[in-house]
Write a sequence for this structure.
């Protein structure tokens, strides 16, 4: 071991104000280690037992997230980390949350945690300085955590949105193809129609009947599958007796609730020979109208998704406090998570308070809270589960409770649920920082989040004051 001197320790920013006798005390109780470039300094999952001082080189830290290593931080002898790393006095770290590697030739001085209490007695001011360095390190870690969580949340959200967009987009593509085919048929059917002895009054009579069918109250009366199929069979049988053999014709007229009597009236009005030419034209017209409605519905879904996305990510607004309707924000979140909800056939029960006031919040950040809590509830449920969202409001406060009827969180771990990097999910399914960020966002609003859980009921309750307290940051 090369000799390490007091002069060497004074080059380390964290130690440069210590008296020589205290530096000698550290030297007497420390171990010197040399690491080549890329050597493992600390291993993920190992007990955190030593604090180290950097005599030479750098240490890069990679957090272990979802089964992979993600770069987080570089320790070196600079103003941010002051040449000190590892376990520090009063740190809650029990095990290393990732791997640390030497960057270049790195020489460290390691001191075991068993000497921390003695060190505090020796120099309390030095311990306070170390706590200050640890606090700044925690802030830097928190910033990185937030960035990773945002990227992770954005990735999950983007995947869900892509799936949500794909369904109406695929529908529009299919509708476009079908509508093109229907328009081509229209030329043929119109030519056939002109060969009939049919008057404008006949066309008007048919139009009035169709208008009654499209806009009549009977359209809102639901039928069972059996009732619909029996009606189709009845119409198909009657049409075949009168020269119309296509099954889709019977399906269309059944969908629009045509009766045999009404079809008979058309046949009587225009005559049997014209009837076999008019019915295909009318079926094509009705189908085209239905297709156009389907097109409007599909494009409307895309428009609603875009509106929800813009609102959810707080586009076109400042980063200041902005008044928002919490109910609308929750609805937008449910829209964006709709694919996951439908995939598990989850029932969402909303018990919203009346007259929800607009609340001044950081909308984009608070939407992360709703996204995380609802997404966690979805994850906790098996198929056919239930999520209940309850809100309570008055002129001073609002409270949002998100409840699922899953298996619950055990009493042994519920106290750790908001701790950084703590997760109940399997490796690769969760980062363990979502609820930590939720907690920090709620506190940023001077609010409070609580959790209660038992088998069959887990409830996360978020309480936020409507009037911002002094010091909201």
């Amino acid at each position: 071991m090369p000799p390490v001197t007091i002069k060497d320790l004074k080059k380390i920013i964290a130690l440069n104000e210590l008296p020589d006798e205290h530096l000698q005390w550290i030297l007497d109780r420390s171990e010197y280690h040399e690491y080549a470039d890329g050597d493992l300094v600390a291993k993920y999952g190992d007990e955190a037992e030593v604090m180290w001082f950097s005599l030479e080189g750098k240490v890069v830290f990679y957090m272990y997230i979802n089964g992979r290593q993600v770069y987080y931080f570089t320790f070196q002898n600079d103003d941010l980390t002051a040449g000190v790393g590892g376990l520090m006095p009063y740190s809650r770290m029990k095990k290393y949350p990732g791997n640390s590697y030497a960057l270049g030739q790195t020489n460290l001085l390691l001191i075991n945690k068993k000497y921390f209490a003695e060190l505090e007695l020796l120099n309390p001011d030095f311990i306070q300085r170390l706590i200050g360095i640890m606090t700044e390190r925690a802030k830097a870690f928190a910033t990185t955590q937030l960035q990773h969580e945002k990227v992770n949340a954005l990735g999950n959200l983007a995947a869900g949105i892509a799936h949500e967009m794909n369904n109406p987009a695929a529908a529009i593509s299919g509708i476009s193809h079908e509508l093109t085919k229907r328009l081509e048929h229209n030329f043929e059917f119109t030519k056939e129609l002109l060969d009939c002895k049919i008057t404008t009054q006949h066309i008007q009579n048919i139009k009035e009947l169709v208008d009654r069918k499209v806009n009549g109250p009977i359209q809102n009366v639901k039928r069972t599958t059996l009732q619909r199929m029996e009606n189709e069979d009845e119409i198909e049988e009657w049409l075949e007796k009168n020269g119309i053999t296509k099954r889709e014709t019977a399906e269309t007229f059944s969908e629009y609730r045509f009766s045999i009597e009404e079809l008979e009236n058309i046949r009587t009005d225009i005559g049997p020979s014209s009837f076999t030419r008019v019915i295909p034209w009318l079926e094509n017209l009705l189908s085209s109208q239905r297709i156009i409605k389907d097109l409007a519905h599909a494009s409307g879904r895309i428009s609603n998704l875009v509106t929800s996305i813009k609102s959810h990510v707080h586009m076109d607004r400042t980063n200041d406090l902005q008044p928002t309707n919490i109910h609308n924000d929750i609805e937008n979140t449910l829209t964006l998570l709709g694919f996951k909800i439908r995939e598990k056939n989850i029932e969402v029960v909303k018990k919203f308070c009346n007259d929800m006031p607009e609340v001044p919040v950081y909308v984009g950040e608070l939407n992360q809270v709703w996204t995380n809590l609802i997404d966690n509830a979805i994850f906790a449920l098996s198929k056919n589960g239930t999520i209940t969202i309850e809100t309570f409001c008055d002129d001073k406060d609002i409270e949002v409770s998100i409840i699922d009827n899953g298996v619950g969180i055990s009493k042994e771990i519920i106290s750790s649920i908001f701790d950084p990097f703590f997760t109940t999910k399997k490796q690769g399914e969760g980062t363990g920082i979502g609820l930590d960020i939720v907690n920090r966002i709620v506190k940023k609003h001077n609010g409070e989040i609580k959790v209660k859980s038992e088998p069959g009921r887990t409830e996360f309750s978020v309480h936020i004051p409507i009037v911002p307290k002094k010091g909201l940051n």
The domain at 317-465 is CATH 3.30.565.10 (Heat Shock Protein 90). The first strand starts at residue 30 and ends at 35.
